[in-house]
Specification:
By secondary structure, the protein is mainly alpha-helical. It contains 7 helices and 2 strands.
Length: 175
């Protein structure tokens, strides 16, 4: 439902902004990059904690265990914040995550969004396994896929990321 502003000689009638409209792709990607910088601290502390508790002496020791631990910690981080509506990066960029109906996310919906958000990285990472790509090529492949995945939101009717559509969530402006 759109609300109309009363007409006046200086202000023509304009519909109010849709409260469930997606923020611009530029703003969502800026938020995404800032989230990555903040996540660096979470991963650093979690990695330090894992190394200390497991008495890991070498970075490659217990690598599968560390990866599983980081997947769990990052999942807890995002699920907890998304259940409350915003991460710190989302607050900074005035972006909020809600259900498709505009309601706050349940813990299970936030967890589903976390699992589906791995679409940002999973396809290129799975592709590097059979190809045996060196780190530089793997990084380039991830960068290209992230760009493609972000641009694919242009084909969604509400301009949402596809993992949000599949999870029954949406990013909205929090201004």
């Amino acid at each position: 439902m759109t609300q109309r502003v009363p007409a006046s000689p200086t202000h023509p009638v304009q519909p109010a902004a849709d409260p469930l409209a997606a923020p611009s792709l530029k703003r969502r990607m800026a938020c995404w990059l800032y989230e990555g910088m903040l996540l660096f601290g979470v991963v650093f502390i979690a990695g330090y904690l894992f190394g200390t508790l497991s008495q890991t002496r070498h970075a490659l020791d217990n690598r599968p265990g560390l990866q599983a631990f980081l997947f769990l910690i990052i999942g807890i981080y995002f699920t907890w914040f998304w259940h409350r509506g915003q991460t710190l990066a989302m607050k900074t960029w005035h972006v909020k995550v809600v259900s498709a109906q505009g309601l706050p996310l349940s813990q299970s919906r936030a967890l589903l969004r976390y699992l589906l958000s791995w679409m940002w990285f999973l396809p290129p990472l799975l592709l590097t396994i059979p190809l045996g790509l060196p780190p530089g090529s793997m990084g380039l492949l991830c960068f290209v896929w992230v760009l493609i995945w972000a641009l694919l939101s242009r084909f969604h009717p509400q301009r949402q990321f596809w993992h949000d559509a599949w999870a029954g969530t949406r990013l909205v402006s929090a201004k």
